């Protein structure tokens, strides 16, 4: 069974103090930092690029940077994010790019690799790629913005992915991203999520979220 991981998303932090945001994650005793990259094509927003990651990696050499590429052409940026210090690179299934090759390239660079789907993409479309990833992530909001409400069928989608993992006898992590709160996190963990992204909930309601997760982590 995979250990439970909380990966705060610094998208919800004060963007003038991203270094301090990672410091806050570290001081909470956590290791994973979720780093959201948006290209204004795959999603209607822009966020941070490799130069931000490089500086955060210099400041925090021991943290695990979980890099979520919301991009139409993620394969053109694997090198840049790997050299900048990514620990794991997450690519989406939806855009048209050489997905299998990209997953392989990320592994060949010695990083962990994740695959991600949007809320309306069927969980079963992940199946052909699951043997080749360390983590599969379900977006639980439409990607592009923090602070949205979790989709209604999150629980069912997590359970479906967990069932698929059992049937395929694999042990990739199941990560969820978007709209996680202290109120809904227990149900997500019970359904099978073991890696929890939280932006707004971590940065605005830290104690409630940490308490809710601690209650599930026994
Ligand atoms: C959305 C991002 C998420 C987002 C999560 O496109 O991928 O990581 O920042 O933020 P909250 O937890 O605020 O929904
Ligand atoms: Zn994300």
From TrEMBL:
Keyword Isomerase: yes
The protein's required cofactors: Co(2+); Fe(2+); Mn(2+); Zn(2+)
Known EC number: 5.1.3.1
Keyword set, alphabetical order: Carbohydrate metabolism, Isomerase, Metal-binding
A Pfam family matched in the record: Ribul_P_3_epim
GO molecular function: D-ribulose-phosphate 3-epimerase activity
EC primary class: isomerase
Reaction it catalyzes: D-ribulose 5-phosphate = D-xylulose 5-phosphate
InterPro entries, alphabetized: Aldolase_TIM, Ribul_P_3_epim, Ribul_P_3_epim-like, RibuloseP-bd_barrel
Family note: Belongs to the ribulose-phosphate 3-epimerase family.
NCBIfam families with a match to the protein in the record: PRK05581.1-4, rpe
UniProt protein name: Ribulose-phosphate 3-epimerase
Native species: Intestinicryptomonas porci
């Amino acid at each position: 069974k995979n250990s439970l991981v909380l990966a705060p998303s610094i998208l919800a932090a004060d963007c003038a103090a991203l270094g301090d945001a990672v410091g806050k994650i570290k001081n909470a005793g956590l290791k994973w930092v979720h780093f959201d990259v948006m290209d204004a094509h795959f999603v209607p927003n822009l966020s941070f690029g490799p130069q931000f990651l490089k500086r955060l990696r210099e400041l925090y050499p021991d943290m695990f940077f979980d890099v979520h590429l919301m991009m139409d052409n993620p394969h053109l940026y694997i090198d840049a994010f790997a050299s900048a210090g990514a620990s794991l690179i997450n690519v989406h299934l939806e855009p048209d790019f050489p997905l299998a090759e990209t997953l392989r390239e990320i592994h060949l660079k010695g990083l962990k690799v994740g695959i991600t789907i949007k809320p309306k993409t069927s969980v079963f479309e992940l199946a052909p790629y699951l043997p080749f990833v360390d983590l599969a992530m379900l977006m639980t909001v439409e990607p592009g913005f923090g602070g949205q409400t979790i989709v209604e069928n999150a629980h069912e989608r997590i359970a479906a992915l967990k069932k698929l993992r059992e049937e395929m006898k694999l042990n990739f992590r199941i990560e969820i991203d978007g709209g996680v709160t202290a109120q809904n996190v227990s149900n997500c963990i019970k359904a099978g999520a073991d890696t929890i992204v939280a932006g707004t909930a971590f940065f605005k309601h830290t104690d409630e979220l940490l308490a809710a997760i601690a209650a599930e982590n026994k």
